[in-house]
Amino acid sequence: MTGLVAAERGIGEIAIADALPEFVVVVFAAVTHLADPWFLFGLLAVGYWFASDRFAAAPRRAGATAIAAVTCAYAATALGKAWFAVPRPPGAVGPADVPTWLPGLLSAWYEAQVLSDGFGFPSGHATGGAAAYLALALVYDRAWTVRRRLLAAVALALAVAASRVVIEVHYLVDVLAGLAVGSGVVLGALWLAGDPRIRRSAVSESAGDPTRSLDPTLPFLLAAVVSTGALAVAVANGHTGEVVEAGIGIATGAGGAIGWRLVDADEPAVPVRIAVPALAVAGGLWVGAYALSGSVWVTLAATTAAVVAVVALPALPERIEALSSARS
């Protein structure tokens, strides 16, 4: 199946990127952070924990569904990369052409952005960016207007996709495929979650407030299933890096489904005094999952625990209050 996507699949975009001023490339190296997995999941967690009914009729359902949709998108990316197994552009493997005018600290940062290993099709940043920003635009349906939300989502997704080509870690076809996959997966995830806007034939009492119908359980489980397929393909073909990514996808999907069972879905926003230490704990588990990626089982356990903590957190204040009342 590898032959379906050619290793040499550029159409001249790398030459155009080479001709751009160094300052432009540095700017796009910063733009690419808008779809780093840590940034997107942090953004999604903040929305899930803190959004009020000013943003959605059921903000906890909306936020969890957005997380589930993006988890599905990353699962699809892992499967695609393991399946097609085609390389990135030659410039992505180095050495990096770092602008001489950048100070030392920024030079190290820039080099980290423009050098990437692993496979190149589809672009994970383009997929994740399209999925995250489209999901946010659709689930938080009380913010702004539909037109403004969708324009913002498209602008951010396109900026991220362009950045991956400008810094020469992806070909144009990689990011176009990522944009298509990310957008399609979000619509499919919302359909699974019961969004009446996507299930046009469905008759729902909450049609005026579509987020009241959302249940992210099936999208989370789908992400785990697709990631299991990615794991099988990666193991069969000896793609070690993709084995780790697929394992994290399984744990994220399973952890999200488990965590969602622990909440009532109508909790208020999480108090900052609880969210801050919870974020530190979840972040530590995520870092540990990647740092100990040599052991798949440790990675699975750490990731599952982190995602359960993130998704179940809205239920924690009520349980703490109940325990305090019981003791008193």
Automatic annotation (TrEMBL):
<feature type="transmembrane region" description="Helical">
    <location>
        <begin position="214"/>
        <end position="237"/>
    </location>
</feature>
<keyword id="KW-1003">Cell membrane</keyword>
<keyword id="KW-0378">Hydrolase</keyword>
<feature type="transmembrane region" description="Helical">
    <location>
        <begin position="270"/>
        <end position="290"/>
    </location>
</feature>
<feature type="transmembrane region" description="Helical">
    <location>
        <begin position="243"/>
        <end position="263"/>
    </location>
</feature>
<dbReference type="InterPro" id="IPR036938">
    <property type="entry name" value="PAP2/HPO_sf"/>
</dbReference>
<keyword id="KW-1133">Transmembrane helix</keyword>
<keyword id="KW-0812">Transmembrane</keyword>
<dbReference type="Pfam" id="PF01569">
    <property type="entry name" value="PAP2"/>
</dbReference>
<feature type="transmembrane region" description="Helical">
    <location>
        <begin position="62"/>
        <end position="84"/>
    </location>
</feature>
<feature type="transmembrane region" description="Helical">
    <location>
        <begin position="119"/>
        <end position="138"/>
    </location>
</feature>
<feature type="transmembrane region" description="Helical">
    <location>
        <begin position="173"/>
        <end position="193"/>
    </location>
</feature>
<feature type="transmembrane region" description="Helical">
    <location>
        <begin position="150"/>
        <end position="167"/>
    </location>
</feature>
<feature type="transmembrane region" description="Helical">
    <location>
        <begin position="23"/>
        <end position="50"/>
    </location>
</feature>
<dbReference type="InterPro" id="IPR000326">
    <property type="entry name" value="PAP2/HPO"/>
</dbReference>
<protein>
    <submittedName>
        <fullName>Phosphoesterase PA-phosphatase related protein</fullName>
    </submittedName>
</protein>
<feature type="transmembrane region" description="Helical">
    <location>
        <begin position="296"/>
        <end position="316"/>
    </location>
</feature>
<keyword id="KW-0472">Membrane</keyword>
<dbReference type="GO" id="GO:0016787">
    <property type="term" value="F:hydrolase activity"/>
</dbReference>
<feature type="domain" description="Phosphatidic acid phosphatase type 2/haloperoxidase">
    <location>
        <begin position="65"/>
        <end position="190"/>
    </location>
</feature>
<dbReference type="GO" id="GO:0005886">
    <property type="term" value="C:plasma membrane"/>
</dbReference>
